[in-house]
Fold:
Amino acid sequence: MTKRITVAIDGPAGAGKSTLARRIAAKMGYLYVDTGAMYRAVALWALRTGVSLTDMHRLEQLANEARIEFAPGDSGGVLLNGEDVSEAIRAPEVSQAASEVSRIPAVRRALVSKQREIGERASVVMEGRDIGSVVFPDATVKIFLDAQPEVRADRRATEAALPREVVAEQIRERDRRDQTRAHSPLVQAPDAVYVDTTGLSIEQVEAALLKIIRDRTSNGKERTE
Ligand code: DC
Structure:
């Protein structure tokens, strides 16, 4: 009998979700799924085709029709309708548009359904904002990664090569929007393990997460097919 494992990693921007989720997926041999990339891909498609970010009906259509695929392995590669958009989706205007698109319930429904399909086919490490609370409420392991806002701003500023104050303001704004939106706001699931990565190295967090995952998966909480 094959055991299918779902590791859900949620948390705010800059908490270290992508780096950690990717490393954990590689270590465990699971598929890494970056759900933020899916909202970004829909946003990119809307920007490229001139669809207004207030046109809920067209955005819902795009979310339903988008063919979003993840490259196997831990490269973090994302394909939209067959095109490699891994870099294009990281542009600042796409971050902004993704945040707006992610507020639309019909878009969320379409993408959540794609996320469930992926997680039902394979063992995954899936990261986002609502994975443990909405997408997979029965996930094998749920982790909520967090860090102090200044630390998150520093990490993003380094990645984006932007001044710290600019990024700190962007992060505050995105946190506020992600936490206060009406549908699937960023919340910690009651049964998620809270991990504060402030002051910890990637290796230290990775070791902590692997321990949590191994403890959970060796004590019979696996989902069985
Ligand atoms: O993690 P990220 O920055 O790539 O996410 C892009 C946007 O999508 C961000 O504004 C939060 C939103 N998002 C979401 O609402 N739900 C998810 N599961 C993942 C991301």
The pocket of 2'-deoxycytidine-5'-monophosphate is lined by residues 13, 35-36, 39-40, 98-99, 102, 128-130, 174, 178 (CB under 6 Å).
